[in-house]
Amino acid sequence: MGMTADQTFYPTPKMAMEAPPEEVAYIATLNVHGKPDSLCTVDVNPNSSDYLKTVSELSLPNIGDELHHFGWNACSAHLCPYNPHPDVERRYLLIPGLRSSRLYIVDTKDDPRNPKIIKTIEPEELMEKTGYSRPHTIHCGPEGIYVSALGGGSKTGEGPGGIFLIDHLTLDIKGQWENDRGSQYYAYDFWWHLGHDRVVTSEWATPDLFENGLNLEAAVGGKYGHKLHIWDLKTHNHLQELDLGKENQMVLELRPSKNPKNTYGFVGVVVNTQDLSASIWTWYLDKGEWKIQKTITIPAQPAAAEDLPAPLKQFGAAPPLITDINLSLDDKFLYVSCWGTGELHQYDVSDPFNPKQTGLIEIGGVAKKKAHPSGAPASGGPQMVELSRDGKRVYFTNSLYSSWDDQFYDDIKGWFVKADVSENGGFELDKDFFMDFGDQRTHQVRLQGGDSSSDSFCFPNEEN
Amino acid sequence: MDHFHYGFFILLGLYHGVNPGMGWLFSVAIAMQRESTKTIFVSHLPIAIGHLLSLIATIVIYYLISDIITPKVSKVFFSLLLIGFGVYKLIDRSHFTWTKMNVNNYDLALWSFLMASSHGAGLMLIPGFNYEGDHMIHHLEHFGFLALGVHTLAMLITSIILAFTVYKLIGLRILRSSWINFDYIWSFVLIIGGLFIFFV
Question: Which of A45, A405, A409, B154 could lock A23 by a disulfide, CB 3.0 to 4.6 Å apart?
């Protein structure tokens, strides 16, 4: 707790774009060969002698955690005016094990290049205190640290998933967040419109449908999640559900407008079971009622059966499979990972109902298998995508979830790359930036001091 | 009220007004959300009412307790209460939960009441009531009304000026550059108040 404001906090999203460039990136890496997962710290400062080196690897004390969307204990939401506490420091990363239901908390303050575990919440404690399992996404917010969890509070994970809270001061579990969950059963991502007291949650599935790989039959039968849910941030009550239709399977990453004045946001759908396309939808508030419409469709790409992995041979096409999206802090550019086709798209979403594609990067892909411009072979495809706060550097990795990786890609090898964004749109891979992680599968990236998906804001952008 | 009392209550009014946790920052956020300068002024009415109600509640309790114990015991009791609360706030950093940005006047008054109460804004004023100064206080009700009125007015004016200045002129960058941890200062003011009651 300091005397002054944490300098990584910004009152408005546009102000956060003035943040200095990150010097290190934290990457969750997954091991499937009987070795523990790691948190790797990578030097991304081009002026450093350690540039593009893993400067430390924090090997976790357990095997099989399957790290996912880790996040910070504190962020710009601590400037929210009803309880301003910018003296709380952004220093701990909370790292959830999606498969083990274990949660690690590491401290980055003493040596940002060499984080240390300071606390571990074991699966039994997590399940008992929250009624949930399979923790997935971390967001800091007005009531502390929010964590989404995909399974109910048992070893098998039956029952509804949801959100639980962790106290941002003591780092202890506070309990389940929901008061009345209404029709919500599946969980995945969540975020909010802080200026309008609304929470949005999305749906992947329960553990029985994802832990052993994608169940194609279930997907064709519309068994995976296909809805969004709108909640009251204050009462924790379910208000409304938005059904995208059973054919739109797996509604994942939520990116509400960063400006708290706005009432729209973007969500990615992994696959349409009728034509294998993927899509981006825009939700919005219309006269007190939340609505949603499809605003981007990315079609499947025809491919020869021999070029396709086993589950896709029958279709003769590579599905884009949108697995992650990211929105710049000025709400201008949306980045869309097409893990199946091996593409990263950039859209100008200044008009959220009429996105225009402004950039395309191709790397990997189930059929194309395109190499990195450095010449390095690239298995997998663009997956977790993170954007620097100034909007100039896009970092991304290639692993999705171990059992799904194995279905779609043979012997996936982890990599970490960067693309540079041009001022008025368009972006390209930095041909000198390719980090080979070998058997370590790379997942979520967090940038030092925050990034475009780490913070939320209570103050609208100032007009000037 | 003598000069000391006026000085005391006005100074603490300024201090509460400057504290971003007492309302001016919330007022700025609502004004920005609604794009309305008028909101700066309108929102301050419920903020001031909530603040005042919290002070009245504290001071009424203070008088009730003072009535049943001797002045000597009262001196020790309130001195320890303020020091204890100040120390407690230094150690326990938790605060009440509030997540609502879309507030009406009632919400805002309630928020301000809770904020003032949980921080012990009324407690901070007790030294001013405990210290009789050069003149014996004959009409407590009259004195209390004037003291809290003067304090709240000073708080209100300070808060409005700050909110207006930040909203219209300076901008929110001040939050990054000029933030000081008001919770620490707050605790020390309480502790000094407790010592004042004890020694003066």
Answer: A45
